[in-house]
Give the backbone structure.
Amino acid sequence: MTPRAVLWLAVVLAEVGALSVAIFRETKSAGWPSFKGVPIPFVKKLARIFQELFRSPIVALLAAAVAIDLAVGLHDPPSSWGLSALAAAGPRPRVGLARAAYHLADALVMAWPGLLAATCGRVFLGNSRGAETSRKSANPGRDLLDSAAFRWRRTGRRVLAGCYLGAVVGLAAAYPLGQVRTQQVLLAWEAVALLFAAGAIFAGWRRVTAGGGPWTRAHGVLLVLVPVELAVAAIGPFAREDVFSAWDVARWQYLVAFVVVACVLAAPRRRR
């Protein structure tokens, strides 16, 4: 294996390790279903297990990270596989299967910051809907922040999804766009996703200071991943004219990030 392939494999293993710890934590949580004495077929039981697991936003996010990296793969001959290998085949500009693989790989790579931002909204603003539907609490300031957080999450998700679809469709429709314009579109999308994530984190912090619940491991995981994604956007491949030539910089950043995430998830909960 080439050095780049080893680095890619290390990142995937770090993601799988973090995902495994997250699943372990989720299975140990109080809400985990028990099937003892319940006559449920194995397939339905397995489906119930996966359904419960993916209710955890962190499990879903880490599973998406693994799936994206495995699908996109790597192009570094002789170590080439996945969509990257298909996209690298043939003449330029790409046509046929190579072009389809290139656009699909772009869509998957761009999905990561969007999923990260959406998860920030789900975790930091997750329980704010009650302010819209339930009776008011004894803390008017918290009610006001909960209501604002719910509206931000609902509107922000639509804006986020619209920006993502617009960027993906625009890159595909305008192909070949050129390295500079492609880099500008990808960087702009990163900026939109990070802005949404930062807004969700700030709103979550305001809710905590106004009397909301304490932050959990899920919050800690996102407080690791969001700054790393900011570093990827600032000094990683998205800050280079040729986005596709500097992925090793991002992989080193992601490797450190997912190792830290695994440690955060594995750390014992402090007793009060």
